């Protein structure tokens, strides 16, 4: 089946380049372009596209306002095309919260060559988006209402040892899925290490958003940082996050080695390090995401005695990574997103 795409971007050059890049794939047909959301609104009615690419910063109506209206009135798969800047990161994260499926980044300079570098990634994301059933605002993807984040509080800790560890990996749809899991954690939960496929400049704003909405303390991981209960550590974009043991403690290790499974950070890299240094004291969670990154690493964790969970297909935006892990026998339990936090806490304290 040919995927019908509408491109919405105020730059005529970007519209032309995206049209050429996408049309090079026989499975994708660019049925139209629009310079702003008001024109896009009419073209959606006229052309009935399967997937929309949307610039985050648009004239006449900003991309977020348009996306919010679209998801309320005519939900459809949307890929955001954002600038590789901190401002672009903030807006893109808001767009994912409003229901966008995924995003690609465009460079500030030398747009033509920059977009060419992302051609394969863009086409893959278009194809994945075409399989997604539109669900409106991303908070609905948990399979139920999301509880209000518990308030930070002092008092005795349930978990006093640094020996227990929760490792999470995610990709497409993962920013909101991770939020659901973290919001289900108490402030004294075991330490959590997270790899989300995300570019540089996006991981710190993502960590800050998580820190504002969760009872745990959430940060972008730093090399040599001590891993402590009540804290969650997110891999920095463009680097791998590993867990190492330093005596009786766990520490973060940040490396600038080659991409693994085309990703940097890679979930497999994190999970493999957790299997080696935490063994049966860890619980692994693989959430929504395109591809198979993390599947083999989760299998190593399970073979080493760790408990392993994956998000079910119904609550996943894309059941690529969880499905791959399930198929190779890496998964102990398949659960809806809304049950992942409670299950992880039960297993890590057992």
From TrEMBL:
Its EC number is 3.1.1.61, 3.5.1.44. It is an enzyme of class 3 (hydrolase). GO terms for molecular function: phosphorelay response regulator activity; protein-glutamate methylesterase activity; protein-glutamine glutaminase activity. GO terms for cellular component: cytoplasm. This is Protein-glutamate methylesterase/protein-glutamine glutaminase. Gene3D superfamilies: 3.40.50.2300, Methylesterase CheB, C-terminal domain (3.40.50.180). The modification 4-aspartylphosphate is found at residue 55. Residues 159-350 form the CheB-type methylesterase domain. Belongs to the CheB family. The active site is at 171, 197, 293. Keywords: Chemotaxis, Cytoplasm, Hydrolase, Phosphoprotein. It is found in: Cytoplasm. It catalyses: [protein]-L-glutamate 5-O-methyl ester + H2O = L-glutamyl-[protein] + methanol + H(+); L-glutaminyl-[protein] + H2O = L-glutamyl-[protein] + NH4(+). The lineage of its organism: Bacteria, Pseudomonadati, Pseudomonadota, Gammaproteobacteria, Nevskiales. Phosphorylated by CheA. Phosphorylation of the N-terminal regulatory domain activates the methylesterase activity. Coiled coil: none annotated. Involved in chemotaxis. Part of a chemotaxis signal transduction system that modulates chemotaxis in response to various stimuli. Catalyzes the demethylation of specific methylglutamate residues introduced into the chemoreceptors (methyl-accepting chemotaxis proteins or MCP) by CheR. Also mediates the irreversible deamidation of specific glutamine residues to glutamic acid.
